[in-house]
User: What shape does this take?
Amino acid sequence: MTPRTAQAQTILVTVPPTSDLSEPQRCGRSCVWCSRALAVGHSVDVGERDDETGRHWFPRGCPLCSVEHVYRQLIEHASSCEQCVDNGGLCPASAELRRALKEGRAQ
Assistant: This one.
């Protein structure tokens, strides 16, 4: 996992609400999308965040789901972001999404 800037950490990969997730999914032991058990070193950090009740959690995804969901979000973001149209390399949201996509593809 690569270090992230504070600004980039505010840009989150979209995941299901915690109320729809199992305990292993909320704890990062299972994929947040497909609920497949995650092995150490074979998961993608999709950004720490607070849930609907304000509790801190660390969702993770399996590489296959992460690539699919992050790629879709990156395409949607880049098509509507003025900074990405001008120079996507300067957009913190694009950088965070590309980081998660790269992490998923590397596994």
